[in-house]
Specification:
Elements lengths: L2 H13 L17 H4 L21 H7 L2 H22 L2 H15 L1
Helix pairs in contact: 1-4
Length: 106
């Protein structure tokens, strides 16, 4: 994850009342984001649904359609939109993200 983008997303999330907890390793998961992250700065943030459920399970499905699941979706979309708007209006932050990207790939 790009540290500049992740810090921005965390700050926006905190302003929306979301807190991050230390990441727990998933039993198994994969995305194509790892490939993309070699070309452009990326983040892959998660919000807790408040349930101890692994993705792609019936328990996770119940958590995702719960009231907290709806809040996670709403807050996640808002945090991403606010973060994107912040980047669009702050070229220095974008430059910092690209600099961190280049350093990570060296």
């Amino acid at each position: 994850a790009n540290p500049v983008l992740l810090q921005l997303f965390r700050e926006v999330s905190f302003s929306l009342g979301r807190e991050f907890v230390p990441e727990k390793p998933l039993e198994s998961a994969s995305t194509d984001l790892g490939n993309v992250s070699h070309a452009i700065p990326t983040i892959h943030p998660y919000y807790s649904l408040g349930w101890d459920a692994q993705p792609h399970t019936p328990e996770f499905e119940r958590a995702a359609i719960s009231l907290e699941g709806e809040r996670c979706l709403r807050d996640g979309v808002r945090a991403l939109a606010i973060s994107a708007a912040t980047l669009l209006t702050n070229p220095r932050l974008v430059a910092d993200a690209w600099h961190a990207q280049q350093q990570a790939l060296e």
